[in-house]
Amino acid sequence: DYMLGEASESSIQSVIQWKDLPIPQGEINAFFTRDYNMVNPGTKYKPVQGGFLVLRPSMETYNNFVDIVREGDFRGGSGWGGKVGPFYGSMTFQGLIPYYYDYLHPNTSLELNHCIYNQMCDNPRVDPTVKDVVHGKCRTGEDHCEDCRSRPIEDVVTAHFTLCQKPWWCLPQSGDRIQERLCRKLHGQWYRIRSDLEKSWGRSGQGSGSYDVDQFKGYCKRHGKTGYIPIEKPYNMLLE
């Protein structure tokens, strides 16, 4: 809505990462989140997280990206244009996007709050969390940083199942740790959506599996990848 000019600046302010900075004036062409886990806090150009991207459609922008890739100015020790990288994924998406929007075309994008969009349940600090207490510097470079693992699930719009692992691996995430508590809730929502989908086809919305039924809605028969019960064909139809 904001890209289309149908939302106010105040409405977008609540979901951006840096609320104390002014929103760039002019056309905003991209929304994304960053992956602060991939670099040291002092790194100037941070990776964009590969699990979420909203772009304003543009053939000009597309062709610009094609030209960048074809030119191939990725340098082994210093990344794209000698400015962005190297870090995990920097040769592709996670480096190309910040090279384009942070270095070549600054002030044309917005970084969204990764506790709300593209939630990964990641540790916000450089040292391990011990008994739900965080330690070390903030990966964002702030003095104080939000721990996304403490966000109520009601605030989460989209999730990226990386640290939580895939829902269809039938992992109960039942440990009493800050990360697992939210991961279990997110996986539970995934299974609720699957159940609702099957109900919309006229099915029961309950599988035949007996493993942690309250969590997995009967779609897991045992712990682990081999325990998952896939959706049965024909899709979008009532089973005979």
Biggest sheet architecture: 3 strands, mixed
Shape designation: globular
How many helices does DSSP assign? Answer: 5
Following the backbone from N to C, one meets helices and strands in this order, namely HEEHEEHEEEHH
Summing up helix and strand content along with how strands pair, one would put the structural category as alpha+beta
Strand order of the largest sheet: 2-1-5
The number of E-state strands comes to: 7
Question: If you had to describe this structure to a student in words, what would you say it looks like?
Answer:
The chain has helices at residues 9-13, 59-71, 93-104, 178-200, 213-216; strands at residues 30-34, 48-55, 74-75, 79-80, 109-111, 125-130, 133-138. The termini are far apart. The protein is globular, with a radius of gyration of 21 Å. 28% of the residues are buried. It is an alpha+beta fold and 240 residues long. Helix content is 24%, strand content 13%.
Can you tag this structure with a few keywords?
240 residues, alpha+beta, three-stranded mixed β-sheet
What's the short story on this structure?
This protein has 240 residues and is an alpha+beta fold. Helix content is 24%, strand content 13%.
Secondary structure blueprint with pairings:
Layout: H1 9-13, E1 30-34, E2 48-55, H2 59-71, E3 74-75, E4 79-80, H3 93-104, E5 109-111, E6 125-130, E7 133-138, H4 178-200, H5 213-216
Parallel strand pairs: 1-5
Antiparallel strand pairs: 1-2, 3-4, 6-7
